[in-house]
Amino acid sequence: MTRMILSPRERRVAWLLTQLVLLGAFAIGALAVRDIVQDRPDGGDPPSAATTMVPPAGTGTDEAPAATTTEATTTTTWEPARSFTLVATGELLVHEYVADRAADYGGVGTWDFRPMFRLVRPILSGADVALCHLETPLSADNSDLAYYPGFRVPFELADAIADAGYDGCSVASNHSLDAGTAGVVSTLDHLERAGVATTGMAVDAAGDVPATFEADGISIAHLSYTDLMNGGSLPTEPARLVPRVDADEILADAAAARATGAEFVVLSLHWGTEYETAANSRQETLVETLLASPDVDLILGHGTHVPQPVVEQNDKYAVVGLGNFLSNQPGDERRMCSECPVATQDGLIAWFAVGDLPDGSVGVVDAGYVPTWVRRSSTYEIVPLGIDEPADVDPAVLAESANRTAAVVGQALRRLTIDSFG
């Protein structure tokens, strides 16, 4: 096995992510202890118990204070809760000039997208489950590459997705059938070869199932749907090729996933009004309907190419739009996207700590995000703002991007930076 060598900055980011996991676990335990106290039938003080207090890891102190022990007549044992971290990102939209830069990285006859993920790799690989959204179909052998408006992009993107630390990808989008059924087959084949799970495309009944993961003993199901289809109609024929956004069908699928053992169900929805930061009425209605179901735990949105608000409902979250994670929008002198706002260069990494809740269910116990920005002018690197910013990029440009995203995301997610945890 090849071991990845991290730079000092990457090691610091990975260390901070470990602290996030510990903070999430601490929050789970605190919630559980609170409910134990509140659920006492006599409403009185809980029985005294032998407790040991130690400072949280990573406080920066050289010596830990001595443990404090309280004598007790009754001992309450608390079993550690199961927990995991999940991150999700926006659209991987490989325009021609993104591919051209990958060709420069790869050399003659090959494309290497891995350098574009260099700065975000520690965040993605540091999570227990990392989910991407692949919008552009992968070519089978790179002999038929095509870009906007119909995409067939270099298959080496699958290797970069795996190398970045992603465990799975949603693949239902308006571009899913750009290369027809052959494009569905090649996309699924290359991601499977790279070891990345997929949901949102299927060519047969065996593949028409959610992607599943397990983290700390918790089973997770991931489903993907699109509300948009370029040059075609929904539902597709057969419908399993690309599942459509239909509330009844989604809820039936989520219930089926729950019935087969899923404890945490994630939906990826490709929807919305292109380039609009505000959620449209259909998105708002679907969020309310889907989050009201006991079978849906988290919604991840894509499709508008700009960040959209985050909704918290019933202690559950819908990230309505994660924005672009990698693209050439809003374009440049070679191919300008006149309708693309500057926010198409923005995106976010949504971060969730998930674990056992006192009522026996599994849910989100902590949530945050890292804003991102694509450095299109040279490297096409995805920059995690506030975590690993290039010194040679104007700080004002990066601050403007972060502020745009913060204004849209709102207060439901707290922004994560190195200073937040350092």
In CATH, the topology is named Purple Acid Phosphatase, chain A, domain 2
Query: Main sheet?
Result: 9 strands, mixed
Quickly give the CATH architecture. Answer: 4-Layer Sandwich
**Average residue pLDDT:** 85
State the CATH class: Alpha Beta
Number of helices: 9
- Please give the number of β-strands: 19
CATH H-tier superfamily:
Metallo-dependent phosphatases
The rough form would be described as globular
Radius of gyration: 22 Å
Structural class comes to alpha/beta
Helix percent reads 25-40%
Poorly predicted tracts of residues: 1-9, 24-80
β-sheet strand percentage: 15-25%
Q: Care to describe what's here?
A:
It is a single chain. By secondary structure, the protein is α/β, with parallel strands linked by helices. It has a single domain (83-421), classed as Purple Acid Phosphatase, chain A, domain 2, CATH 3.60.21. The protein is built from nine helices and 19 strands. It has helices at residues 8-38, 96-106, 121-125, 157-164, 180-194, 247-259, 281-291, 395-409, 418-421, and strands spanning 52-53, 68-69, 83-92, 129-134, 168-170, 197-199, 211-215, 218-226, 264-270, 298-302, 310-313, 316-319, 324-326, 331-332, 335-336, 346-356, 362-375, 381-384, 414-415. Strands 3, 4, 5, 6, 13, 16, 17, 18 and 19 form a nine-stranded mixed beta sheet that branches. Helix 4 runs parallel beside helix 5. The longest helix has 31 residues, at 8-38. Mean pLDDT is 85; it is low at 1-9 and 24-80.
Break the fold down into its secondary structure elements and pairings.
Layout: H1 8-38, E1 52-53, E2 68-69, E3 83-92, H2 96-106, H3 121-125, E4 129-134, H4 157-164, E5 168-170, H5 180-194, E6 197-199, E7 211-215, E8 218-226, H6 247-259, E9 264-270, H7 281-291, E10 298-302, E11 310-313, E12 316-319, E13 324-326, E14 331-332, E15 335-336, E16 346-356, E17 362-375, E18 381-384, H8 395-409, E19 414-415, H9 418-421
Parallel strand pairs: 3-4, 3-13, 4-5, 5-6, 8-9, 9-10, 10-12, 17-19
Antiparallel strand pairs: 1-2, 3-16, 7-8, 11-12, 14-15, 16-17, 17-18
